[in-house]
From TrEMBL:
Gene3D superfamilies reported in the protein's UniProt record: NAD(P)-binding Rossmann-like Domain
Signal peptide: none
Protein family according to the UniProt entry: Belongs to the short-chain dehydrogenases/reductases (SDR) family.
InterPro entries cross-referenced by the UniProt entry: KR_dom, NAD(P)-bd_dom_sf, Sc_DH/Rdtase_CS, SDR_fam
PROSITE patterns: ADH_SHORT (PS00061)
Domain Ketoreductase: 8-190
This protein's UniProt keywords: Oxidoreductase
The protein's name in its UniProt record: Oxidoreductase
Superkingdom of the source species: Bacteria
An MF annotation (GO) of this entry: oxidoreductase activity, acting on the CH-OH group of donors, NAD or NADP as acceptor
Cross-referenced Pfam families: adh_short (PF00106)
Species name: Rouxiella badensis
Coiled coil segments of this chain: none
Length: 246
Protein backbone atom coordinates (compact mmCIF):
# COMPACT_ATOMS: atom_id res chain seq x y z
CA UNK A 1 0.00 0.00 0.00
CA UNK A 2 1.21 3.50 -0.72
CA UNK A 3 0.06 6.83 0.61
CA UNK A 4 -1.40 8.99 -2.15
CA UNK A 5 -2.22 5.94 -4.30
CA UNK A 6 -4.20 3.68 -1.97
CA UNK A 7 -7.93 3.66 -2.84
CA UNK A 8 -7.52 6.01 -5.81
CA UNK A 9 -9.65 5.02 -8.79
CA UNK A 10 -7.29 4.77 -11.75
CA UNK A 11 -8.28 4.12 -15.36
CA UNK A 12 -5.41 2.85 -17.53
CA UNK A 13 -6.05 3.04 -21.25
CA UNK A 14 -3.70 0.66 -23.06
CA UNK A 15 -3.19 -1.70 -20.11
CA UNK A 16 -2.86 -5.03 -21.90
CA UNK A 17 0.93 -5.12 -22.33
CA UNK A 18 4.17 -3.24 -21.82
CA UNK A 19 4.09 0.00 -19.85
CA UNK A 20 0.36 -0.03 -19.11
CA UNK A 21 0.44 -3.59 -17.82
CA UNK A 22 3.45 -2.89 -15.59
CA UNK A 23 1.67 0.19 -14.27
CA UNK A 24 -1.47 -1.81 -13.50
CA UNK A 25 0.56 -4.34 -11.51
CA UNK A 26 2.41 -1.60 -9.60
CA UNK A 27 -0.67 0.46 -8.75
CA UNK A 28 -2.54 -2.66 -7.69
CA UNK A 29 0.28 -3.39 -5.25
CA UNK A 30 0.02 0.21 -4.03
CA UNK A 31 -3.69 -0.24 -3.29
CA UNK A 32 -5.31 1.59 -6.22
CA UNK A 33 -8.70 0.59 -7.59
CA UNK A 34 -8.15 -0.17 -11.24
CA UNK A 35 -10.18 -0.08 -14.43
CA UNK A 36 -8.17 -1.40 -17.39
CA UNK A 37 -8.91 -0.93 -21.08
CA UNK A 38 -7.38 -2.17 -24.36
CA UNK A 39 -8.49 -4.15 -27.41
CA UNK A 40 -6.99 -7.53 -26.41
CA UNK A 41 -9.54 -8.69 -23.88
CA UNK A 42 -7.77 -12.04 -23.39
CA UNK A 43 -4.73 -10.17 -22.06
CA UNK A 44 -6.88 -8.05 -19.75
CA UNK A 45 -8.67 -11.15 -18.45
CA UNK A 46 -5.32 -12.75 -17.64
CA UNK A 47 -4.08 -9.67 -15.78
CA UNK A 48 -7.38 -9.38 -13.89
CA UNK A 49 -7.18 -13.04 -12.88
CA UNK A 50 -3.60 -12.69 -11.70
CA UNK A 51 -4.43 -9.58 -9.65
CA UNK A 52 -7.82 -10.94 -8.47
CA UNK A 53 -9.66 -7.96 -9.96
CA UNK A 54 -13.40 -8.15 -10.50
CA UNK A 55 -14.68 -8.59 -14.04
CA UNK A 56 -15.95 -5.01 -13.88
CA UNK A 57 -12.35 -3.80 -13.70
CA UNK A 58 -11.64 -4.60 -17.34
CA UNK A 59 -13.31 -3.48 -20.55
CA UNK A 60 -12.45 -4.16 -24.17
CA UNK A 61 -11.69 -0.68 -25.49
CA UNK A 62 -10.56 0.63 -28.85
CA UNK A 63 -9.36 4.20 -28.39
CA UNK A 64 -10.15 5.10 -31.99
CA UNK A 65 -13.82 5.05 -30.94
CA UNK A 66 -14.66 7.88 -28.49
CA UNK A 67 -17.75 6.03 -27.28
CA UNK A 68 -15.66 3.05 -26.19
CA UNK A 69 -13.27 5.33 -24.30
CA UNK A 70 -16.25 7.02 -22.65
CA UNK A 71 -17.65 3.61 -21.68
CA UNK A 72 -14.35 2.74 -20.00
CA UNK A 73 -14.37 5.92 -17.92
CA UNK A 74 -18.08 5.53 -17.18
CA UNK A 75 -17.31 2.03 -15.91
CA UNK A 76 -14.94 3.46 -13.31
CA UNK A 77 -17.55 5.92 -12.11
CA UNK A 78 -20.44 3.42 -12.10
CA UNK A 79 -18.35 0.80 -10.30
CA UNK A 80 -16.32 2.92 -7.87
CA UNK A 81 -18.31 6.16 -7.76
CA UNK A 82 -15.52 8.40 -9.06
CA UNK A 83 -12.41 8.64 -11.22
CA UNK A 84 -9.23 9.98 -9.65
CA UNK A 85 -6.69 9.29 -12.40
CA UNK A 86 -6.76 8.47 -16.10
CA UNK A 87 -3.57 7.32 -17.81
CA UNK A 88 -3.90 7.80 -21.57
CA UNK A 89 -1.22 5.32 -22.55
CA UNK A 90 -2.43 3.48 -25.68
CA UNK A 91 0.00 3.87 -28.54
CA UNK A 92 1.79 2.37 -31.47
CA UNK A 93 5.02 3.19 -33.25
CA UNK A 94 5.21 1.98 -36.85
CA UNK A 95 8.38 3.87 -37.78
CA UNK A 96 9.42 4.30 -41.43
CA UNK A 97 10.82 6.98 -43.70
CA UNK A 98 8.18 9.32 -45.12
CA UNK A 99 9.23 8.31 -48.64
CA UNK A 100 7.67 4.89 -48.00
CA UNK A 101 4.24 6.53 -48.03
CA UNK A 102 2.74 4.36 -45.26
CA UNK A 103 -0.68 6.00 -45.20
CA UNK A 104 -2.27 3.35 -42.98
CA UNK A 105 0.53 3.62 -40.41
CA UNK A 106 0.31 7.42 -40.38
CA UNK A 107 -3.44 7.31 -39.87
CA UNK A 108 -3.19 4.67 -37.15
CA UNK A 109 -0.64 6.73 -35.19
CA UNK A 110 -2.75 9.87 -35.46
CA UNK A 111 -5.91 7.97 -34.50
CA UNK A 112 -4.43 6.09 -31.53
CA UNK A 113 -1.54 8.19 -30.19
CA UNK A 114 -3.15 11.58 -30.67
CA UNK A 115 -6.94 11.33 -31.04
CA UNK A 116 -7.06 8.48 -28.52
CA UNK A 117 -5.52 10.77 -25.90
CA UNK A 118 -8.03 13.50 -26.72
CA UNK A 119 -10.90 11.02 -26.33
CA UNK A 120 -9.53 9.99 -22.93
CA UNK A 121 -9.37 13.61 -21.83
CA UNK A 122 -12.89 14.25 -23.14
CA UNK A 123 -14.26 11.23 -21.29
CA UNK A 124 -12.68 11.99 -17.91
CA UNK A 125 -12.85 15.78 -17.80
CA UNK A 126 -16.58 16.29 -17.06
CA UNK A 127 -16.38 13.93 -14.06
CA UNK A 128 -13.18 15.52 -12.76
CA UNK A 129 -14.62 19.02 -13.20
CA UNK A 130 -17.64 18.00 -11.18
CA UNK A 131 -15.49 16.35 -8.51
CA UNK A 132 -13.15 19.36 -8.44
CA UNK A 133 -10.29 16.89 -8.41
CA UNK A 134 -8.54 14.49 -10.71
CA UNK A 135 -5.29 13.70 -12.47
CA UNK A 136 -4.85 13.26 -16.23
CA UNK A 137 -1.62 11.50 -17.21
CA UNK A 138 -0.65 11.26 -20.87
CA UNK A 139 2.13 9.07 -22.23
CA UNK A 140 4.33 11.00 -24.63
CA UNK A 141 7.93 9.94 -25.38
CA UNK A 142 11.50 11.10 -25.84
CA UNK A 143 10.18 11.29 -29.41
CA UNK A 144 8.01 14.16 -28.19
CA UNK A 145 11.27 16.05 -27.70
CA UNK A 146 13.43 14.73 -30.52
CA UNK A 147 12.72 13.68 -34.09
CA UNK A 148 14.93 11.31 -36.07
CA UNK A 149 14.76 9.96 -39.63
CA UNK A 150 11.95 7.41 -39.70
CA UNK A 151 10.15 8.76 -36.63
CA UNK A 152 8.56 11.91 -38.09
CA UNK A 153 4.91 10.93 -37.72
CA UNK A 154 5.36 9.16 -34.38
CA UNK A 155 7.31 12.15 -33.05
CA UNK A 156 4.60 14.49 -34.36
CA UNK A 157 1.92 12.59 -32.44
CA UNK A 158 4.02 12.51 -29.27
CA UNK A 159 4.83 16.22 -29.57
CA UNK A 160 1.11 16.84 -29.98
CA UNK A 161 0.46 14.90 -26.77
CA UNK A 162 2.81 17.26 -24.93
CA UNK A 163 1.22 20.36 -26.46
CA UNK A 164 -2.31 19.16 -25.69
CA UNK A 165 -1.29 18.29 -22.13
CA UNK A 166 0.17 21.74 -21.53
CA UNK A 167 -2.95 23.41 -22.95
CA UNK A 168 -5.05 21.17 -20.75
CA UNK A 169 -2.92 22.00 -17.69
CA UNK A 170 -3.75 25.68 -18.07
CA UNK A 171 -7.43 25.11 -18.87
CA UNK A 172 -8.15 22.97 -15.81
CA UNK A 173 -6.74 25.34 -13.20
CA UNK A 174 -10.24 26.30 -11.96
CA UNK A 175 -11.07 22.66 -11.29
CA UNK A 176 -8.13 21.54 -9.15
CA UNK A 177 -7.11 18.95 -11.78
CA UNK A 178 -3.49 17.84 -12.18
CA UNK A 179 -1.88 16.96 -15.51
CA UNK A 180 1.28 14.97 -16.13
CA UNK A 181 3.19 14.14 -19.29
CA UNK A 182 5.37 11.04 -19.08
CA UNK A 183 8.09 10.93 -21.73
CA UNK A 184 9.96 7.62 -21.60
CA UNK A 185 13.03 6.60 -23.54
CA UNK A 186 13.48 2.98 -24.58
CA UNK A 187 11.48 0.69 -22.31
CA UNK A 188 10.90 -3.02 -22.86
CA UNK A 189 7.42 -3.67 -24.27
CA UNK A 190 5.68 -4.92 -27.41
CA UNK A 191 5.82 -1.50 -29.07
CA UNK A 192 8.26 -2.49 -31.82
CA UNK A 193 5.80 -5.21 -32.93
CA UNK A 194 3.69 -2.38 -34.41
CA UNK A 195 6.41 -1.64 -37.00
CA UNK A 196 5.22 -2.83 -40.41
CA UNK A 197 8.48 -2.49 -42.40
CA UNK A 198 10.65 -5.58 -41.71
CA UNK A 199 14.01 -3.82 -42.11
CA UNK A 200 12.97 -1.01 -39.78
CA UNK A 201 11.56 -3.50 -37.27
CA UNK A 202 14.83 -5.43 -37.25
CA UNK A 203 16.90 -2.32 -36.45
CA UNK A 204 14.55 -0.98 -33.79
CA UNK A 205 14.22 -4.38 -32.09
CA UNK A 206 18.01 -4.60 -31.93
CA UNK A 207 18.14 -1.08 -30.46
CA UNK A 208 15.60 -2.09 -27.81
CA UNK A 209 17.51 -5.28 -27.03
CA UNK A 210 20.69 -3.26 -26.53
CA UNK A 211 19.20 -0.29 -24.73
CA UNK A 212 15.78 -0.73 -23.13
CA UNK A 213 15.08 -0.76 -19.42
CA UNK A 214 12.21 -2.57 -17.72
CA UNK A 215 8.62 -1.36 -17.84
CA UNK A 216 8.68 -1.07 -14.05
CA UNK A 217 10.69 2.12 -14.60
CA UNK A 218 7.62 3.69 -16.19
CA UNK A 219 5.38 2.36 -13.43
CA UNK A 220 7.50 3.86 -10.67
CA UNK A 221 7.65 7.24 -12.43
CA UNK A 222 3.85 7.32 -12.78
CA UNK A 223 3.42 6.16 -9.18
CA UNK A 224 5.67 9.04 -8.08
CA UNK A 225 3.48 11.58 -9.90
CA UNK A 226 0.22 10.14 -8.55
CA UNK A 227 1.46 9.87 -4.98
CA UNK A 228 2.35 13.55 -4.60
CA UNK A 229 0.24 15.67 -2.23
CA UNK A 230 -2.83 17.11 -3.96
CA UNK A 231 -1.30 20.60 -4.18
CA UNK A 232 1.77 19.29 -6.04
CA UNK A 233 1.33 18.96 -9.81
CA UNK A 234 4.13 17.04 -11.53
CA UNK A 235 3.76 18.36 -15.08
CA UNK A 236 6.34 16.35 -16.99
CA UNK A 237 8.82 13.59 -16.43
CA UNK A 238 11.33 12.73 -19.16
CA UNK A 239 13.43 9.66 -18.43
CA UNK A 240 15.77 7.39 -20.39
CA UNK A 241 17.87 4.32 -19.87
CA UNK A 242 21.20 5.56 -18.52
CA UNK A 243 22.86 4.01 -21.59
CA UNK A 244 20.51 5.70 -24.12
CA UNK A 245 22.32 8.34 -26.16
CA UNK A 246 19.60 10.29 -28.03
N1 LIG B 1 8.27 1.25 -24.93
C1 LIG B 1 8.91 2.39 -25.13
O1 LIG B 1 10.13 2.43 -25.30
C2 LIG B 1 8.13 3.67 -25.16
C3 LIG B 1 8.85 4.87 -25.15
C4 LIG B 1 8.14 6.07 -25.18
C5 LIG B 1 6.77 6.06 -25.21
N2 LIG B 1 6.10 4.87 -25.23
C6 LIG B 1 4.64 4.91 -25.27
O2 LIG B 1 4.14 4.08 -24.25
C7 LIG B 1 2.80 3.71 -24.56
C8 LIG B 1 2.62 2.24 -24.28
O3 LIG B 1 3.35 1.50 -25.23
P1 LIG B 1 4.25 0.22 -24.86
O4 LIG B 1 5.66 0.60 -25.10
O5 LIG B 1 3.86 -0.32 -23.57
O6 LIG B 1 3.86 -0.76 -26.06
P2 LIG B 1 2.88 -2.03 -26.10
O7 LIG B 1 3.40 -3.11 -25.21
O8 LIG B 1 2.72 -2.34 -27.55
O9 LIG B 1 1.53 -1.48 -25.50
C9 LIG B 1 0.68 -0.62 -26.23
C10 LIG B 1 -0.65 -0.57 -25.52
O10 LIG B 1 -1.51 0.29 -26.30
C11 LIG B 1 -2.70 -0.40 -26.56
N3 LIG B 1 -3.34 0.00 -27.81
C12 LIG B 1 -2.80 0.08 -29.04
N4 LIG B 1 -3.74 0.43 -29.94
C13 LIG B 1 -4.91 0.57 -29.24
C14 LIG B 1 -6.24 0.90 -29.59
N5 LIG B 1 -6.61 1.18 -30.85
N6 LIG B 1 -7.18 0.94 -28.61
C15 LIG B 1 -6.84 0.66 -27.33
N7 LIG B 1 -5.60 0.34 -26.94
C16 LIG B 1 -4.65 0.30 -27.89
C17 LIG B 1 -2.31 -1.88 -26.60
O11 LIG B 1 -3.44 -2.68 -26.33
P3 LIG B 1 -4.21 -3.58 -27.43
O12 LIG B 1 -3.25 -3.91 -28.52
O13 LIG B 1 -4.64 -4.77 -26.61
O14 LIG B 1 -5.35 -2.73 -27.85
C18 LIG B 1 -1.32 -1.93 -25.45
O15 LIG B 1 -1.99 -2.08 -24.23
C19 LIG B 1 2.59 4.12 -26.02
O16 LIG B 1 1.85 5.32 -26.04
C20 LIG B 1 4.00 4.35 -26.51
O17 LIG B 1 4.04 5.25 -27.59
C21 LIG B 1 6.75 3.70 -25.20
Amino acid sequence: MSQGIENKVVVIVGASSGLGEALARRLHKDGAKLVLGARRLDRLVKIAEELSLSKDAILKTDVTDPQQVQALVDRAVSHYGRIDVIVNNAGLMPHSLLERRKFDDWNAMIDVNLKGVLYGIAAALPYMKEQKSGHIINTSSVAGHKVRPGSAVYAATKTAVRVISEGLRQEVKPYNIRTTIISPGAVTSELADSITEPDVAKNIKQFYEDTAISAESFASVVAFAISQPEDVDINEILFRPTRQEL
